Every structure is written in C-alpha cells, then in structure tokens.
Amino acid sequence: MPEMQQLADTMLAAAATVLGRLVDQPVDASAASRHVRGGSIRTDGDELVTRAEIPSLGIGVVVRYAVADMERVVGLMLGGAEGAGDVGAVQLSIVSETVSQITAAMAERLATAVGAPTEGIRAECCSDAASLPAPPFESYEGMIQVGSAAAPSVTIDFDGVARSKLFAGGSTAPSAAPPSQPSRPSGPEPSRRSQPQPAPAHAQPVSFAAMSSVPMRSVQPSPANLDLVHDVPLQISAVLGKTALTLRDVVSLQAGSVFELDKLSTDPIDLYVNNILIARGEVVVVDDKYAVKISELNPSVAT
Fold first, then answer.
1. Among positive and negative, which fits the CA dihedral 178, 183, 188, 193?
2. Distance between CA 56 and CA 169 in Å, rounded?
3. DSSP reduced 3-state for 160
4. pTM
5. Which of 73, 171, 228, 286 has the most CB atoms lying inside 10 A of its own CB?
C-alpha cells in the first residue's frame, strides 16, 4: 500500500498529464509538501474547490486550485496568455470544466494506485462549503510547471474518513488465520448419557379441493388515471439547427458574430419535449410573436 505522500505525488502527476494535453505544452509536477489543515475549506475565496467521489472506496477527495493560476492556463488553452486576467462568463465556465476534468483524472489515478475500480468516479466544482467534508485535513500541495508561462498550485485534501478507508481498504496483508481447535484424543468417544428420542411423526395425506377455471376479464384504462398527469408541465424546445465550434471560436464570440447552422432556411425546425423529438414544423408569426406551425408529428430522426 503506498504512503499518503506517494499517493499525492501520483495524483499530481496525473494532473500534469491532463494539463499537458490541454495546453499542448511540456509540463512538470513538483513533489507534494504535506501540512495539516485544522479549519474548514472555504468556497468563496480565491480558490476553485472541487470534490471527487470514488464509489469503489467510499470516499471523497477535495482538490483546490488558485483561480488566478487557472485563468492563465485557460489563456494558454485559447492560444496564448493574453486572455489571462480578463475572464468572462464563458471563460469561467471553461475554467470550472477544466478543473473538474483534472480532479476526475487525479481521483482515477488514486483508485488505480490502491487497486480499486475506477467506475463511477465523478468530480465537480463546489460552491457550497456544507457539501465538503469536515476538518481536520491532511493536505498535500504541489505545483505544476506549464512551460514558462504558468505554474498553477494544486492542493489535495484528505479528511479523516478518506485516510482511514484508504489504508484499511487498501491493505493487502493476509488476514490472520482462525485459532486452531484443540485436537481430540484418539480412540472411542466417551459414551454420552442416552436421551429419550421422540416418536417419529406419521405423515398424513393432504387432499385439495378441485378448482374451476375463471374467465379473464379485460380491464379498460380509466380516463381518470390520465387526468392525474394532464397538468404536468413539459418544456418544449424549437431548434432551428445545430453546429460544432472549436473552443477558440466559442470564447471569441461577441456581439455581431455570425455562425452557420446545419439547416437551410427552407428546412423545417425540430420540436423537442424533454430532449425527445416529437414533431417538425415551420416558423410563423402570430400577434408579433414567433410561433411554430406543426407539419409532421413523430418524425424519424434520420430525416
């Protein structure tokens, strides 16, 4: 079973691997330094706090990143450091998704290091401190050098439950053998005092009454049953078309930008209910508002 220091170094190496792929630059992870944190983790400071759940181990691991560091990393992902320091809503969303991917990769590497399955591992940013484990934490902090432009700091926090389960569940030591039973002396067993045995019960035959077949009656659905769900609200979406853009194109969108969809102006639009295609139609105007005139119900997805 690896020590906590080795596990933290392994997780930092996984973070470096993911960052290297994202920015397409050489990266290098430093060794982790250990310290004990007695207070709770705040989510309203200058750090992005993520939490990874590892179902196979039954633990959660907290990983923190400096916001300013990850903004520089996103600037590198977009083609240079010029985007650092001027991060809008779209860029912040990219930062959150980036750190979630890095944390998930770190959690997978941790599970692999202790011989646990990686199925079901997920990670997400935490905005509510109440969803984080309670202190104290055994924390390991390291830096990932991304070329010469950025060196984000990464901190891994293990709470008491994670530490105990990692070492209790990951131990490969064989279990102690059960105590041996004292050997009985050879030879005939001493006679036991005879006990009166109850008389065997006599089985009685059981007879069943004959059963006659009863014709099945078909049950008609009651209209009242459907009335129970008639008032359930459903969200309908009218989709003009779709397209695929690169990350660089998305973050460069601004007022006046134009991008092309995959449908012609004469093609019908798709109507979705809870992400299920139910109809197609054409856009019309009713009382100065957009509306959809249905031309096809239950269309096939291929058309």
1. negative
2. 10
3. helix
4. 0.59
5. 73
What CA–CA distance (Å, rounded) separates 221 from 194? 69
Q: Give how far the C-alpha of residue 160 lies from the chain's centroid of Cα atoms, to the nearest Å.
A: 22
Distance CA 271, CA 297 (A): 9
Residue 177's pLDDT band (cuts 50, 70, 90): very low
Domain boundaries in the chain?
Answer: 4-170, 234-242+262-303
- Please give the Cα distance from 88 to 97 (Å, whole number): 14
Q: How does pLDDT run across 132-142, given as a tens digit for each residue?
A: 988 899 999 99
Report domain 234-242+262-303's class.
mainly beta
Name the CATH superfamily housing domain 4-170: CheC-like (3.40.1550.10)
| Residue 63, both tokens | 């990983």
| 294, 281 contact by CB (below 8 A) | yes
Q: What average pLDDT does the chain have?
A: 79
How far apart CA 104 and CA 122 sit, in angstroms, is 6
Separation of alpha carbons 288 and 294, rounded Å:
18
Q: Are 127 and 96 in contact (CB under 8 A)?
A: no
Greatest CA separation for the chain? 106
DSSP string, 90-136: HHHHHHHHHHHHHHHHHHHHHHHHTT---TT-EEEE---GGGSPPSP
Average pLDDT over residues 268-287: 87
3-state helix, strand, coil in the chain (%, to 5): 25, 25, 50
